[in-house]
Amino acid sequence: MGTLYLFPTTLGESPLSAVLPEMNTQLMSGIQHFIVEDSRTARRFIRKCLPTVVIDELTFFVLNKHTPPDTISTFLQPLKDGHDMGVLSEAGCPAIADPGADVVAYAQQIGSRVVPLVGPSSIILALMASGFNGQSFAFNGYLPVQLPDKIKALKKYEGRIVHDQQTQIFIETPYRNAKTLADILTNCPPDFRLCIAADITLSTEYIVTDTIKSWKNNIPDLNKRPAIFILYR
Amino acid sequence: MGTLYLFPTTLGESPLSAVLPEMNTQLMSGIQHFIVEDSRTARRFIRKCLPTVVIDELTFFVLNKHTPPDTISTFLQPLKDGHDMGVLSEAGCPAIADPGADVVAYAQQIGSRVVPLVGPSSIILALMASGFNGQSFAFNGYLPVQLPDKIKALKKYEGRIVHDQQTQIFIETPYRNAKTLADILTNCPPDFRLCIAADITLSTEYIVTDTIKSWKNNIPDLNKRPAIFILYR
Question: Do the Cβ atoms of B20 and A19 come within 8 Å?
Answer without folding.
Answer: no
